[in-house]
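Morning!

This is the sequence you dropped in the shared folder:
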Amino acid sequence: MIDTHTHIDGEEFESDRDDIIARAKSAGVSHILLPNIDMMSLLAMDEACNMYPDICRPLYGLHPSNVTEDYKIQLEAIFAAAAVDKRIVGIGEIGLDLHWDDKFRAEQIDAFEWQINYAIEHNLPMSIHVRDAFADMYDVFSKFDGKKLVGSLHCFSGNAEDAKRCVEQYPNLMFGINGTFTYKKSELPEIYKTHIPLDRILLETDAPYLAPQPLRGKRNEPSNLPVIIKHIAEAYGVSVKDIENYTDNNAKRLFRNI
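The structure's back. Tokens below.
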């Protein structure tokens, strides 16, 4: 199993990160991808990848919620760090988030475009965060060749029409499935099995956030991936092993450097 999006480099795991890694390995997790969120988090991500080089891999990006007036300075620092790190597997966590407010909407859009350009120029996949901003995402995407948009729609939160549109128009984008898929009132299982083929799905936890049922509300971690897989298998009507194989192959195809 490959956790394609998790934040175990964060301060929430400072006291027991060794145990987190040990539990992940015991659960069958082979790789853990760590998306960066801003200039200040570069060091923590780098240290985690240095401490656990057999399992952790870095992605470099500026999270939309961390975009402020200084976003260009942050991007320059992030790109400079990415350019010299041979372990890099992608650009992320990037995207658009208008859930709380739209104060820096213009800056988020510009930062998103900068990072898409960087990913395309360097032939790197992206980990894309979009929350309450699908219309703006489509506007940004319209400025690029859809086939060159390669990556994962992390924690996909769109509706059925969004799923159908993304599958059809952006053939090299995959869809990250985490604990939200398991929530009792979630519409995601129906959306996925109806509109998203198995060769387009990825596993992720987004730890420490979005723990699956029945752990909802607790700190999440990569070792919870089997719980998510069980729900995915039930939704698609296939075996747990089938989901493990599909998601592993999809992740290795997308993130070629793992």
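Headline: The radius of gyration is 17 Å.

More detail when I'm at my desk.
O.
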